[in-house]
Amino acid sequence: MTRAIVLVLDSFGIGAAPDAENFGDAGADTLGHIAEACAASAERGPLQLPNLGRLGLFHAHRESTGAWAEGIVPPESTSGTYGHAREISSGKDTPSGHWEIAGVPVRFDWGYFSEPQNSFPAELLEALIREAELPGVLGNCHASGTEIIARLGEEHMQSGKPIVYTSADSVFQIAAHEDTFGLERLYRLCETARRLLEPYNIGRVIARPFNGDAAATFQRTANRRDYSVEPPSPTVLQRLCEAGGQVTAIGKIADIYAHCGISRSVKASGHDALFDATLDAMAADGDRTLIMTNFVDFDMVYGHRRDVAGYAAALEAFDARLPELLERLDDDDLLIITADHGCDPTWHGTDHTREHIPILALGAGLAPGSLGARDSFADIGQSLAYHFDLPPMDDGTSFLQEA
After folding, report:
1. Contact yes or no for 16/347 (Cβ under 8 A)
2. Cα(309)–Cα(345) distance, rounded to whole angstroms?
3. Residues in contact with 54: Cβ distance below 8 Å, sequence separation at least 6, in sequence order
4. Are the beta carbons of 202 and 224 closer than 8 angstroms?
5. CB 5 within 8 A of CB 348
6. Rounded Cα distance, 48 and 27, in Å
7. Which residues, other chains included, contact 399 with Cβ-Cβ below 8 Å and sequence gap of 6+?
8. N or C: at which end does the chain have fewer Cβ atoms within 10 angstroms?
9. Which residue ranges are tagged as binding site?
10. In whole angstroms, what is the distance from residue 383 CA to residue 397 CA?
11. CB-CB neighbours of 195 under 10 Å
12. Each residue of 232-281: pLDDT tens digit?
């Protein structure tokens, strides 16, 4: 039975990419700096990732950076095939990383709202307010989502004005209270914003619903929704569906690909729920199925919030559950564990970092050992095309074909 399981550890970079300096990220290293912080904490102790380590994570990191991660005792041998890949897409954002993973690098430049204050053009906000019949908007700045909700959430509830904000990514985010503003109304507002943003070439509009009664109790809910533009050419997901296969998208995968090439979408909130949904899909899905899961909390909850201890604990929790998945793999299955960009929790600011991503692979006839440095994330998409006997993608080199 030919299946593939792709687990995207959102933001789990393993060392600065060759062009990191162009992004202000020279020296960034999500895994390395987390390991360093853990090793320096007598109370916390070294980072413990035995299962990812056996698949070759620390070997891949060493090949990426030239040194073993601090405090790590690497296994004497690995059971997986490992490598590190650079990004050739123009940005370090979520859609670019995921599309390149699926064989379609982003070679155009996204639009951005670069001004920290009064970030959005007046004519854009005026059109949004008019078409959505809003009393106005709040925010209009670069901000962390949790910070701006705490700062403006009460005013939003009193005034009915949604909170609009952005970041260094190509994104337009709208936060609103699920009860006082309404979830479906927020979704409709985001759809209007998506249409109005077409001339600006913005990658995503994100609905950020929250609940709670006051600043101290506000919490973002699990009903986030991303409105992405469609990939510029067919991804390996689309090609598999067109060839009669199935793609099961878990978490925010369907939104990232604008629901192109998705047979079934499974929503889940929190890493345990996402992991459970992945195991359920492995039990239910048959031949010629790609199961793809995004573990968003590494990025959203820990990376952007610069929570080193939380990121480390989440990695260890993921690692502890990994054997549940490994024991369910069939001989012909292909498992790939990877990431879409970095988000070094020790780095300045709150944005993504331009880093290599890990490629940890198991099954499908691969022998344990190093894949070395890969020239593009698209090597993953090309390998999936080879695995499913699809025509080659335009970009990438299959590491399965090299085996």
Report:
1. no
2. 9
3. 75, 78, 79, 80
4. no
5. no
6. 23
7. 81, 83, 359, 361, 366, 371, 374, 379, 383
8. N
9. 10, 299, 304, 340-341, 352
10. 7
11. 13
12. 999 999 999 999 999 999 999 999 999 999 999 999 989 999 999 999 99
Instruction: Decide if pLDDT at 68 tops 70.
Output: yes
Domains in the chain: boundaries: 3-107+232-388, 122-228
Q: Which residues contact 166 (CB under 8 A, 6 or more apart)?
A: 113, 119, 120, 141, 142, 143, 172, 173
CATH architecture of 122-228: 2-Layer Sandwich (3.30)
Distance CA 272, CA 143 (A): 28
- Statement: residue 1 has pLDDT above 80: no
Distance CA 392, CA 178 (A): 45
What is the domain class of 3-107+232-388 according to CATH? Answer: alpha beta
pTM value surpassing 0.85: yes
**pLDDT 10s digits, 107-133:** 999 999 999 999 999 999 999 999 999
State the CB neighbour count (10 A cutoff) for residue 240: 25
- Binding-site residues for Mn(2+), in ranges, read 10, 299, 304, 340-341, 352
Tokens of 112: 């951005």
Q: Is the pLDDT of residue 37 over 70?
A: yes
Pairing of strands 219-220, 204-211: antiparallel
Q: Distance between CA atoms of 377 and 99, rounded to whole angstroms?
A: 9
Element counts in the chain: helices (H) and strands (E): 14, 14
For 93, the token pair is 């954002």
* Residue 205 backbone dihedrals phi, psi, to 5 degrees: -110, 130
pLDDT (mean) for 40-67: 97
8 Å CB contact between 265 and 292: no
Give me the residue label for tokens 């490992």.
82
